[in-house]
């Protein structure tokens, strides 16, 4: 039975979050917590693969207790099972410590619940923005990381391979990988439809499996949380708003027309100033 685990994170909605101008840190209370948008596409892709091949879709998160809400959102999308690791010892984790803790939880799921064939992550989170956690997990589990995936052509559990498209700047490449492997998915891989009523009802009542550090086997506590995080944030600042300039509005085509008008007007001014003559 194909077992897909989507790693998901609850994040503040960065479209509306405010910065504290005194401390230059995010005022997390100024924005609601939502499921990382990239991760909703990861879960949706797992659900679509289950529809094609059968199997089970699990979701896993590391976060504070309110992150249960993000797991419920994934159950609404169609996930079967939810797992959460939460503990004060995880607090202050950078991407290295985050990928370590998530790997330990994935090992527990694989050994005690059911083996894992495929892990799907979002391309990145909208708060941390690094895109490092997925490849970090793959490296620790010694499985191939397939990043920037925007189409899954085939997952063949029997023969142990997957074929995907990886988005490139000027097109895409087709990659065949052995299973198990890890995908980091782009937003354009799918559209997440509105949740069905049965899924919403199931989500409202759903209680995920919640584990603390003491539930994870053979764990090196020095690799967790702030203690296990070599990243040092030396300073944080909000970028200055650019002065002057003009913000182009409308559809891309209308913006290009506006930009051309501005450039042509400047060219005329320049030519008039320089005595004209150039064509
Ligand atoms: C010194 C330091 C201290 C920090 N302290 C905290 C803190 O106390 N609390 C805090 O929330 N953040 C903290 N952070 C931020 C934290 O490191 C990152 O949010 C976290 O490691 C994930 O990195 P990212 O957001 O860049 O994820 P990315 O690497 O961009 O995420 C890629 C994908 O990995 C998966 N993923 C990422 N994070 C998780 C997760 N937690 N659970 C499941 N899947 C996940 C998702 O699929 C996601 O789409 C700290 C960072 C630093 C540098």
TrEMBL record:
<dbReference type="InterPro" id="IPR014730">
    <property type="entry name" value="ETF_a/b_N"/>
</dbReference>
<protein>
    <recommendedName>
        <fullName>Electron transfer flavoprotein small subunit</fullName>
    </recommendedName>
</protein>
<feature type="domain" description="Electron transfer flavoprotein alpha/beta-subunit N-terminal">
    <location>
        <begin position="23"/>
        <end position="220"/>
    </location>
</feature>
<dbReference type="InterPro" id="IPR012255">
    <property type="entry name" value="ETF_b"/>
</dbReference>
<dbReference type="Pfam" id="PF01012">
    <property type="entry name" value="ETF"/>
</dbReference>
<dbReference type="InterPro" id="IPR014729">
    <property type="entry name" value="Rossmann-like_a/b/a_fold"/>
</dbReference>
<dbReference type="InterPro" id="IPR033948">
    <property type="entry name" value="ETF_beta_N"/>
</dbReference>
<dbReference type="GO" id="GO:0009055">
    <property type="term" value="F:electron transfer activity"/>
</dbReference>
